[in-house]
Design a protein that fits this description.
With 370 residues, the protein is an alpha/beta fold. 49% of the residues lie in helices and 7% in strands. It contains 16 helices and five strands. A five-stranded parallel β-sheet has the order 2-1-3-4-5, with helices on both faces. The protein is elongated, with a radius of gyration of 22 Å. The structure holds fe (ii) ion (FE2) (2 copies). Residues 224, 252, 277-278, 306, 370 line the site of one fe (ii) ion.
Length: 370
């Protein structure tokens, strides 16, 4: 499922089109290069008219047939006569005001793509789990928008989602939750929802209070918020990442700090889980090389749940590792992880035979803790 973004030359800094690759797999094509082969299997097109030249538009019009079969949205400023004339000259396209709120543009594209994660959920899952999945997903969508727009995080949605997930875990257990969230087409959403469920179950297993269990779940939902600053074309890339792409992904805890630091509406514990979940007890982690006691129990829990999820989940570029193998890999990480906590975690996941939920691998091409 891809959106084709079309502009004349590089996108202007203030174009909302720049933000779409954080919500959808997308490709940017120069107006003069639009053709059957560059559009490929694109399912919708968004044309940015800001700064378009006559030559660019003439080229686009002559190759219009290659996008004529898919819905096209044209972003223009209705106050700018030139852009309005250009947009209507293009023919069959929906014109949207450039300063339309990003949420509306994203919703419109989701409708066009019929992007409803609930439609993909396997049959027969318990109602409570489905309700929790719906709420968790709604919060992640709002989180992506607040990361893109710098707006407040909707803590009421977060708390509602975390409470609902906790009661689904208590009532239905972890397996239906993992079944539901694994159907999500977005790798990052699926990963965050999985980490949230596993963190909630583990916190329960450790006998933490209800409030701490909910916070562990909320931490799981939020922990990779920094990835919402990384285009999906890099995050969900099926091939091996280049060094440059890898180093961009490794910046996500720092991006997370940038996004979360000014957000007073979020608790310090949740912020720490997001910013520090790649720190290791022996000081070899990132971004700050924190050591030992400076890493709180909630962060240690998040790190264990995150690495376990990253190893066992299936992605475009790799199959999932069996649970037992993943635990072995984590035991070999030695003093990087809280091994006493890991021992309890191993008991939890091995007792529940999560191997049935997380499918065995064919081959592992690339593994990474994300
Ligand atoms: Fe993660
Ligand atoms: Fe991460």
């Amino acid at each position: 499922m891809e959106i084709v973004l079309i502009s004349d030359g590089p996108l202007a800094l203030d174009s909302p089109v720049r933000k779409l690759p954080f919500f959808f797999p997308a490709r940017l094509i120069d107006m003069s290069k639009v053709s059957e082969s560059t559009v490929g299997d694109g399912r919708a097109a968004v044309v940015e008219l800001l700064g378009a030249t006559d030559a660019g538009l003439t080229a686009l019009k002559s190759s219009w047939a290659s996008i004529a079969e898919i819905p096209v949205i044209c972003l223009a400023s209705k106050k700018n006569r030139r852009e309005v004339i250009q947009a209507s000259a293009l023919g069959k396209t929906e014109i949207m005001e450039r300063d339309t709120p990003l949420a509306l543009l994203v919703r419109k594209l989701k409708l066009i793509l019929q992007d409803d994660p609930l439609a993909q959920v396997p049959n027969g899952l318990p109602a409570k789990t489905l309700e929790a999945y719906k709420k968790g997903n709604a919060f992640l969508e709002s989180l992506a928008l607040s990361a893109a727009e710098g707006s407040n995080i909707q803590t009421s949605l977060m708390n509602e989602g975390a409470a609902e997930i906790l009661s689904a875990l208590s009532l239905d257990g972890l397996s239906p939750w993992l079944d539901a969230v694994q159907s999500h087409h977005s790798g990052t959403y699926c990963h965050s929802l999985m980490v949230a469920g596993i963190a909630g179950s583990f916190a329960q297993h450790l006998g933490w209070s209800e409030k701490d269990c909910q916070e562990a779940i909320a931490g799981g939902l939020v922990h990779d918020i920094g990835k919402m600053r990384i285009p999906l074309t890099i995050l969900d890339k099926a091939d091996k990442l280049t060094d440059a792409e890898r180093s961009i992904i490794d910046k996500h805890p720092v991006f997370g700090r940038d996004i979360l630091k000014p957000r007073l509406e979020l608790s310090v514990d949740i912020k720490k889980m997001a910013i520090q979940h790649h720190e290791f007890l022996d000081g070899s982690g990132y971004p700050d090389g924190l050591k030992g006691e400076r890493i709180s129990p909630k962060v240690r829990l998040m790190t264990i749940c995150d690495i376990f999820t990253a190893l066992t989940e299936k992605r475009a570029y790799k199959d999932g590792m069996p649970v037992r193998v993943a635990i072995g890999v984590m035991q070999e990480m030695g003093r990087k992880l809280d091994q006493a906590m890991l021992k309890k975690f191993a008991h939890m996941v091995l007792d529940r035979d999560m191997g049935e939920v997380i499918r065995p691998p064919q081959k592992v091409t690339r593994t990474q803790a994300v």
